[in-house]
Amino acid sequence: MTAFDALVVGAGPTGLACGIELKLRGLNALLIEKGCVVNSLYHYPTNLVFFTTPELLEIGNIPMTSLNEKPNRTEALKYYRRVADHYQLNVHQYEHVDKIGGGDGAFEVHTSDRYGCHHAYSARKIILATGYYDIPNLMNIPGEDLAKVLHYYKEPHPYYDQDVAVIGAKNSAAVAALELYWTGARVTLIHRGDRISEKVKYWIKPNIENRIKNGEIKSYFKSQVVEIRPDTVLVATPEGEVLLKNDFVFALIGYSPDLKFLNSIGVTLDPATERPRTDPETLESERPGVYLAGVIVAGMHTNEIFIENGRFHGKLIAESVAGKLAHLKR
What homologous superfamily does CATH list for 149-251? Predict the structure, then answer.
């Protein structure tokens, strides 16, 4: 069984930052990622532009460059690949963590790769940087499991000349609805609230509102889909149920941390705050030797931590891990 000082679950920007900070302190770390490096960013819309400057996405003191004031998805993917190469991080892609056993100082991590092969590692410390983007929120309605129902929006071209329902009214839903409309889809936006979210980016919000006002994008507010059928969707509206012709559904109603995985490791949410119990000084969880990094620190409050602030968790955690391991060697 291969032994490491620390094993990081997740190789997103925060996981990479943790790996870098551990390496800078002379610690041997392994990063396990069930998808590709920065998997959540890869699943972002193809033409996404970040609502931030390049400097705020930087990790490991490696400068990020962009052709424009704000970087786009392609530039971010290239940047994080370059950072991983620069620091020669030990990242196992397409490998899933099945079980974490043992205890502080002697954890046993069991994984499986895409070929069905099983692996086992020992680690003195565990860092969970699993994000939240992999677990879409579900509506729990009939027909939600149909192949035409999608929880991630990538690009609009495949939906040209199709009847598309977009469920939700935050950034991802607004961007999807606009791009689908511009590409020639017949778009209907459905939202249980009474308006487009106030959190939608300032240059997107008036655009989607104007498309709705002009009738170019049909909308149903204070409404919800109650059933999805092969060629229609049934929508409950304030005026009664409406049956809409439909080819595809984008259910963009948010994402959640993998609470089942956290619970299996011994990490639970504080019922009062809906956040995992962690030491604010070190981010060590209630299970000794297990640290949390990135958005999962916020629990269900996933809009509070982003790359811009989650990237600093690596230094905080690495200092704690290095200090405790040094103390054990004395």
Answer: FAD/NAD(P)-binding domain (3.50.50.60)
